[in-house]
Structures are given as structure tokens and as C-alpha cells.
Amino acid sequence: MKIFILEDDPDQAQLYKLWLEEHGHECQVFDTGREFIRRIPFDLPDVALLDWNLPVIDGMDVLHWIKASRYDDIPVIFLSARADENDMVEALTQGADDYIAKPITQGELLARLTAVSRRYNKNQKPSLDDTSPYEIDPQEGRIALNGEPVSLTAKEFDLCVHFFKNPGRLVSRKSLLETIWVRRSDINTRTVDTHISRLRKKLQLDGSHGWKLISVYHQGYKMVRENRHVA
Predict the structure, then answer these.
(1) Do residues 52 and 78 lie in contact, with contact meaning Cβ atoms separated by under 8 Å?
(2) Which residues lie closer than 8 Å to 61 by C-beta, 6 or more apart?
(3) Class for the domain spanning 2-122
């Protein structure tokens, strides 16, 4: 398996890498959340191992980004010094597939990794629910409207997937900044609004094709399905 390890302690990172490579796995180590996220679109792992306590962008931020992106089927295991039950519950509730409190043994890591991988191989998550007349392939990053491909930027596509995964749910601008842009300090809500406007125009999300991306004053955005579908 190809495994991405996000760990800013170089000794621990190399130890995990050694353990896993001894058993035939291919590993790549990252010491910042930003570096990890930048790599994902170009080289998908079979499993991601995330440390929680990292500067700037921590493991939980990375988990949120994964689960809100087109790459949300990447299995995630937390390896964390935070051993409190509340932390474990939070990570699992937010979408992590497993949680191992440090210190970690080689045997436990390999066993948990095998269990998570087996679970995913047996029960691959389905694609998005019915989004017709839009055809969305999250893995390939493609979308078509009535069979005609629509060209979107990476951020526009991530927004598209996020809204179609959460139909009827009010999504705040702050939430979008956290999940799509991972809380970058150099962007503001105006950037979100600009991307939403472009997405709305490109996909014709005005209700004419059965879906409407609406603005909720001072709160955020919501994707709703119209009662009538116009092909």
C-alpha cells in the first residue's frame, strides 16, 4: 500500500516509515499539513496517517479538508499523543477511520492499518447520490451537465462536490474557508463569494436544471433541489 505519513517529529516519522516499509508498504513523510494537502491531487495514497498536534494546519484541519474534497474516500488513521477519550471521539465523529494513542507499537500500527484497508476494500464508499442531470466523478475531478463536460478550477470543483454532498444544508462562509481553503490567512470571504458566483454561472445552478445554489443573507449558501426537473 502507498501510505502518507503526516508527522512533524522526524524521529517518529522515520520510525513509522521503517516499520511499514519492512512489511512492503510504500511510504511518504510530510512534516506540515500544507505540504501534505498540496501533494494529494498529484499522488493519492491508499491510507493517510495523521498526527494531530501540528503548527498552523493541524491534523484535524487536514481531516476536514480530505472529507470535504473529491478525495474523501482516503482512509484516515490518527496517530496522536492526545489520549483523552473526548479527542478520540471527536476525530472519529469528524470522519477518521481509526485512532491510535501514542506511544504506538509496530504490531498495533500494522494491525490497525490492515483492518482499515480491509474495511475499505470490502465496502468502497458509493459515489454521490443522484445529482442528475449533473454527472460528477470525484475521483477523476470531472463533471458534466446533460452529458456535456464543464470545465472547473480545482477549487470550484471541490466546492461543487461539497455542496452536492450536502444538499439542503446551510454552509457558512467560515466553514468553506476551513474545509476548502483550510483556513488560509491570506484569503477572506470575498474570495468564497467570487468562487460561488463563478460556480453558479458555469453549472447554471439557477434552478433551470433542477438544482439551485442560493445565498442566505449573512449566513452562507445552500444547495437545494427544485421540485421540477428541466433537462
Answers:
(1) yes
(2) 33, 178, 182, 183
(3) alpha beta
Q: Which residue has the cell 495523521?
A: 50
Identify the sign of the CA torsion 48, 59, 90, 172.
Answer: negative
DSSP state of 159: H
pLDDT tens digit sequence for 162-178: 899 888 889 888 888 87
Looking up cell 470490502 gives: 122
Residues 6+ apart with CB under 8 A from 56: 32, 33, 34
Instruction: Report domain 134-225's class.
Output: mainly alpha
Helix (H) or strand (E) holding 216: strand 211-216
pLDDT bracket for residue 14 (50, 70, 90): very high
Domains in the chain: boundaries? 2-122, 134-225
